[in-house]
Amino acid sequence: MTAQPAQLAHPLRSQRLNQLTHQPHSRLDALVKSHDPFASPERFARFVAAQYLFQYDLERLYNDPALVALIPDLPARCRLQQARLDLADLGLAIPEGDEAIRSRSLGLGAALAWLFVSEGSKLGAAFLLKRMPALGLSETFGARHLGEPEGGRAQGWKSFIATLDGVELDERQEREAEAAAIAAFERFTEHLERCFA
User: Fold this and answer.
1) In a domain, 40, yes or no
2) For 40, what's the count of Cα atoms within 13 Å in the CB-facing half-sphere?
3) Tens digit of pLDDT for each residue in 38-90?
4) Which residues fall within 8 angstroms of residue 72, CB to CB, at 6 or more apart?
5) What CA–CA distance (Å, rounded) separates 36 from 6?
6) Domains: count for the chain
7) pLDDT in tens, 157-173
8) Does the pLDDT value for residue 2 go beyond 50?
9) CA distance linking residue 25 with residue 171, whole number of Å
């Protein structure tokens, strides 16, 4: 799929990114289902490990001064610490993250796109959290990273999207954002495959 049809179909950046990432998002959903992470706490722990690795990749972005200037509550949105505590609850060792990915330099468009994928996953987390009691888990034990963000999921997402859509990007930054959104889904897919290998 090329970026041009998406650009014509959706004037808002968030909607273009949604359209562009539809296929990798669908592939990721299918992969999650194939690994059945809700069959047992042990399988869910592997899912949490993938979440941890993805948040590890993004931790520097969540604390980047230029991005925090745009999104003041950005540091509080990171779920790395919650995922780390969940892994401890579940008795799984903290997996080793990739420093090269973590320390890479990203332009504004690409950085916002990676955050777009991470923040968007919080919407689906509400549904996953409903499955946790069957595993003996909750947003205070083993599934903290799925918990309700301060201020609520919907409000947090709306405020993030307002910023994403309102930031001025040049043509090169727009293309970088589109590529980065796809790359973020592919990256989480890699983590999931690694953790369930």
Assistant:
1) yes
2) 2
3) 999 999 999 999 999 999 999 999 999 999 999 999 999 999 999 999 999 99
4) none
5) 32
6) 1
7) 999 999 999 999 999 99
8) no
9) 24
> By the 8 A CB rule, do 109 and 176 touch?
yes
8: left (phi over 0), alpha (psi -120 to 50) or beta: alpha
Phi-psi region of 142 (alpha: psi -120 to 50; beta: other; left: phi over 0): left
For the packed helices 41-62 and 171-195, what is the interaxial angle rounded to 10 degrees?
A: 150
CA distance 127 to 2: 32
Amino acid at 98: D
CATH of the domain at 73: 1.20.910.10
pLDDT at 190: 97
Domain span holding position 24: 14-195
pLDDT at 180: 97
Give 121's contacts (C-beta < 8 A, 6+ positions apart).
none
Tell me whether residue 3 is in a domain: no
Separation CA 146–CA 144 (nearest Å): 5
How does the average pLDDT of the chain come out, rounded? 93
Question: Which tens digit of pLDDT belongs to each residue from 83-101?
Answer: 999 999 999 999 999 998 8
Q: Is residue 100 part of a domain?
A: yes
pLDDT of residue 7: 43
Residue 2 to residue 27: CA distance in whole angstroms? 18
Q: Token match 């780390």: residue?
A: 84
Gyration radius from the chain CA atoms: 16
The pTM for the full model equals: 0.93
